[in-house]
From TrEMBL, chain B:
Residues 11-108 form the FAD-binding FR-type domain. This is FAD/NAD(P)-binding protein. PROSITE patterns: FAD_FR. It comes from Nannocystis bainbridge. InterPro entries: Cyt_c3_hydrogenase_gsu (IPR012165), Dihydroorotate_DH_Fe-S-bd (IPR019480), FAD-bd_FR_type (IPR017927), FNR_nucleotide-bd (IPR039261), OxRdtase_FAD/NAD-bd (IPR001433), PyrK_electron_transfer (IPR050353), Riboflavin_synthase-like_b-brl (IPR017938). It comes from the Bacteria.
Amino acid sequence: MVHPRPDINASVLLLRDGLASLLQHLRDDGYLVVGPTVRDGAIVHDQLRGIEDLPVGVGDEQAPGRYRLRRRADQALFGYAVGPQSHKREFFPPSIRLFQLRRGAGGPVLTPEPPIDRKLALIGVRSCELQAIAVQDRVFVGGHHVDADYASRRRGVFVVAVNCGEPSGTCFCASMGTGPRASGGFDLALTELLSGGPHRFVVEVGSAAGADLLARVEHAPASEADHAAASAVTAAATANMGRHMDTRDIKSLFYANQEHPRWAQVAERCLGCTNCTLVCPTCFCSTTVDTTDLAGATATRERRWDSCFTLDHSYVHGGSVRPSLRARYRQWLTHKLASWIDQYGTSGCVGCGRCITWCPVGIDITEEAAALRADVPVA
Amino acid sequence: MTTPIPLFDPMVPAFARISRVDRELPDVFTWHLAAPSGAGFSFAPGQFNMLYAFGAGEVPISISGDPNRPEELVHTIRAVGAVTRAMQGLRKGDTIGVRGPFGSAWPLAEARDQDLLFVAGGLGVAPLRPAILHALAARSLYRRVIVLAGFRSPADFIFRKELERWRSRFDVTVEVTVDRADTSFRGTVAVVPALIAEVELDPAATVALLCGPEVMMRFAVRELERRGVPHERIHVSMERSMKCGVGFCGHCQYGPTFVCKDGPVYRFDRIERLFYVREI
Ligand SMILES: Cc1cc2nc3c(=O)[nH]c(=O)nc-3n(C[C@H](O)[C@H](O)[C@H](O)COP(=O)(O)OP(=O)(O)OC[C@H]3O[C@@H](n4cnc5c(N)ncnc54)[C@H](O)[C@@H]3O)c2cc1C
Ligand code: SF4
Ligand code: SF4
Ligand code: FES
């Protein structure tokens, strides 16, 4: 069956079966298809064999320090907000080997790591996630030096985005200007429609590769009513944001308040557990770990995720530069919301809300930022 | 995304052989390495390399050699912890991993036709040495050249012979002081600044290059201010934790800057906002 190839930037309508066939085509083309699935009471990212691996009819409830899955009344495939994992682990994995060495007669012999050779398709990528990927691109491939591992993992990724309909209680992408509607960086972007007709998806075409794929899948033109319904979905999401961040002059707000009493106050609640930095889709800190075999004949160097909440992060001979939790919390928040702008021209926060949900004591980044604005600090 | 995979991985070191080890102090040594590639190793004074010891780890170390002799790579290292102690155990003929050169440099081009004032505390003389060697080799490019160095005690001098050689030249002013905490009425950290207080200066035509412990630089900046040297004429070399040297690992952040790429050498007025903030 031949289907018309849609134009780039056009939108078409796909039924549930059409989406299933789209995933199948990606698999047939040799893509490793990765998307949301339920595991251990959370929505995580894993390989998808088909749409039945998606969290069908699953929703979530998120609040500071709280995350629960719930059963939805419908069969939505994307009826939840972001889970604990972001897509950063696809491009900046928690741990990689940098190289291996062995002692040779003429000196150490280095075995470099081969570039990652895979075709990756990401399904269900939210707007905040796309923005977060763009933020990390600036860190790893946008500067003078290019991270070879990141570049090889990032190459040729096929992205199927999803526009958000139901943000969680901790989401605030609307106020960060990073969602809920995907504005670019995708091959296809879906808006899931659950009422006013059959379960269907309005699909926006973002690239030639996306158009080529759709040409192989049964689809129909999207009607005016479908377009209106899709716009209503993201408009509702904007209206239902769980939280809000006031970003006016936020850089100078932080730079002018490095000694604000709120830092000491939040440090009393913060456990320094590093959760916020690990779940954050933009945090890029890493450390290196060196090991040798018992005989000392071979050595391995690894790179692992690190966090500015550890004492080691700022350790120089003689001690940590930031021994107090006050200073470490200040580094995290100041980096995310202020100094990131100087470094990369964007905020380091995309408003995904993960750091709020996954903080064991429920510290809320939006509340902490708001407290700096208040003249009288909360006692 | 279409960024090509770089042919060169900035996280993978090249290997260089130690051709000579000079023992400066019981815990300080200078390595002479044959440049990792035959083409020589060119760098700008003030820059550093990431040095990797087999299986032990990698640390940032300033280049302390002569920029006019790129065939040889020189580093002066104090053994303070796991990696640098493993390095102290290495001998002539051993190999070491090198990535670099990284970071910003002393502003030697801008300092042309000006007075150059070097202020070093302890091992801080090592990162300044390439700049001093350059200034002495291209002496006519600068007006006065002044080197002020402070050490904890006479037993802590490094590059002693060289400092004496420089001092014997008529076209260089070299003042060295030791910090005798028990007899000095100025206290332990006021010693190098005390040299600044007394040296003959033309503040509007001086470029001051500072390297040493942060607390020493703080007092030195204060003294330079008192002498009327404008902040934009003062340059400091900062130290922070470093795991990559190329802007990836996040460890070296100093406010909005990365010491590995925006530093280690900073024009003081550009970091003044950060310089006095504790634990930043
Ligand atoms: C730009 C720059 C230039 C420098 N130039 C010079 C120079 O020319 N000469 C010189 O001698 N020094 C120089 N230094 C300082 C030098 O890099 C440090 O002294 C060196 O890194 C110390 O490493 P170490 O492992 O021997 O010591 P340590 O102090 O033991 O450790 C250093 C690293 O090991 C890690 N570490 C320490 N303790 C632990 C622990 N308990 N658990 C896990 N990890 C730990 C820390 O994360 C730290 O980054 C420079 C530093 C910078 C930033
Ligand atoms: S700081 Fe928090 S809300 Fe912002 S991107 Fe990171 S995890 Fe998401
Ligand atoms: S907030 Fe902390 S862990 Fe995250 S990128 Fe910044 S310094 Fe690194
Ligand atoms: S040393 Fe890694 S970012 Fe500067």
